Predict the 3D structure of the following.
Amino acid sequence: MKIGNIELRDRPLFLAPMEDVTDASFRFVCKEAGADMMYTEFVSSDGLVRDARKALAKMVTHDYEAPIGIQIYGNIPEAMVDAARMAEDAARLVGGHGADLVDINFGCPVNKIARRGAGSGMMKEPDKMVLITKMVVDAVRLPVTVKTRLGWDEDSKIIVELAERLQDVGIKALTIHGRTRCQMYKGEADWTLIGKVKENPRMHIPIIGNGDIDSPQKARECFDRYGVDAVMIGRATYGRPWIFREIRHFLDTGELLPQPGVEERVALAKRHLAKSIEVKGEKVGVLEMRRHMSAYFKGLPDFKETRLKLVTLTDPQELYRTLDYVAERWGGTNQDKERI
């Protein structure tokens, strides 16, 4: 599979960009587990234009993450063009690896984004969506991709026609989440329209399917039934970045891998914590690991008190000691037989 000049393996696995989750340290452990393509958390075009420190920081990427896209969002065409140019020039502006492609977020459903016409709010203005996309494509040399949804609501599922229009203005791949904006993340993702986009004889760019992929079996079904070129995995990676390894092994062999035991998860949490501190410094690195710490050990019995420590401690060494305690208390041969 190719996105512009980016070569990917057959049936690649993508990590979905998720605000406050897929930062550089989480991307590190996902890449380690086998993610083929990743994106930054979405970056506000308005924030970049205003030189906001937080927006600029999100554009920092690292060589080990390649290939990686910088994802931008907004609803002002000129600001989106400026943001795309900054994303293309990220290596010079903020250091690091930079971007291998620019991705436009037309899919985020949260109110503060969509209600002001950005993210999936753009589904109400398809002409403007296509205009912004064309302006971004024309402004940068990097491949431009789009992530979007089926439509605004059940009565306006416009994705089949919209996909053609976006392709016609030059995007190199399209990611489709199988829900409308009004569904948010409720109900089941509908992959039938994703399949219709893929089977449209006019479409020749890669189609990446997204929504409810939470197991190796589901991933294979989406490839086989709907013919997508790649699948993108979002919420199922939270507390389970090894899902990429599970899916790849199942696609290649048809065999299911056992879930990692407690000691393996402790080792992963330590690597994740170390990378978070390396990237963001001790204070912020520890604070931003809290959302991940308890997720790695979901399902352990009698874990409430230890979970509280993991999400309140501020001293890295105390955190490492607590993780060692988790391995000693819940790990070992007997616990690992149960596999949390």
Remarks:
- The radius of gyration is 20 Å.
- The domain at 2-253 is CATH 3.20.20.70 (TIM Barrel).
- The first strand starts at residue 2 and ends at 3.
- The CA atoms of residues 136 and 252 lie 37 Å apart.
